[in-house]
Specification:
Blueprint (H helix, E strand, L loop, with lengths): L12 H9 L3 E2 L1 E7 L2 E7 L3 E5 L2 E7 L6 H6 L2 E6 L5 H8 L11 E3 L5 E3 L4 E13 L2 E13 L6 E4 L2 E4 L8
Antiparallel strand pairs: 1-11, 2-3, 2-6, 4-5, 5-10, 6-9, 7-8, 9-10, 11-12
Length: about 170
């Protein structure tokens, strides 16, 4: 631990951000469908909560243009991006636009969107939403999943996308 480590009850935002910039996360695009059509956003907050029964969670920033759709949707799809899809991640992280334009997709029976080329995807039914400090924590029950092409996943750390490879494997 560094000498200047904070032990205050109220941790400063910059100290908190600095730690999580060093926490590598897999990159996914969460998609849902609302009355105005499909919406999606890039997320590094996706986590597996339980395997049996299968649950996952993710958070949506207070300022996300997709938040209203996620608040109203019954279902979502988490598309786990491959290292070759950093352009897709950047597009879905950018300010609202037609993020799906020119991207190959598949529509599931519930209307949710799967992005072609993802290394895998999980369809979920939203069971709980928790508002925390303006962000929305979403918990969903996984109902369907599939693997895409065998490829290394996209990773995000310290404000940049990274790719894994066989050379990055430690064991």
């Amino acid at each position: 631990m560094t000498d200047d480590a904070r032990t205050d009850e109220q941790l400063g935002a910059e100290d908190f951000r600095a730690v999580f910039r060093r926490h590598a996360g897999g990159v996914a695009v969460v998609t849902a469908v609302g009355p105005d059509g499909p919406r999606g956003f890039t997320a590094t907050s996706v986590v597996s909560v339980s395997v049996d029964p299968a649950y996952f969670a993710f958070s949506v920033n207070a300022t996300s243009s997709s938040r209203a759709v996620i608040e109203a949707a019954d279902g979502v799809v988490v598309n786990v991006l491959s290292a070759a899809q950093s352009d897709v991640a950047a597009r879905f992280a950018a300010p609202a636009q037609d993020r799906f334009a020119g991207i190959a997709t598949e529509v599931l029976p519930g209307g949710e969107i799967v992005l072609s080329g993802a290394v895998g995807w999980v369809q979920g039914r939203i069971e709980q939403r928790i508002d925390i400090a303006g962000s929305l924590l979403v918990i969903a029950r996984a109902v369907r999943a599939d693997l895409g092409p065998r490829a290394f996943p996209l990773v995000y750390v310290d404000h940049a996308y990274h790719r894994l490879s066989e050379d990055s494997r430690l064991r």
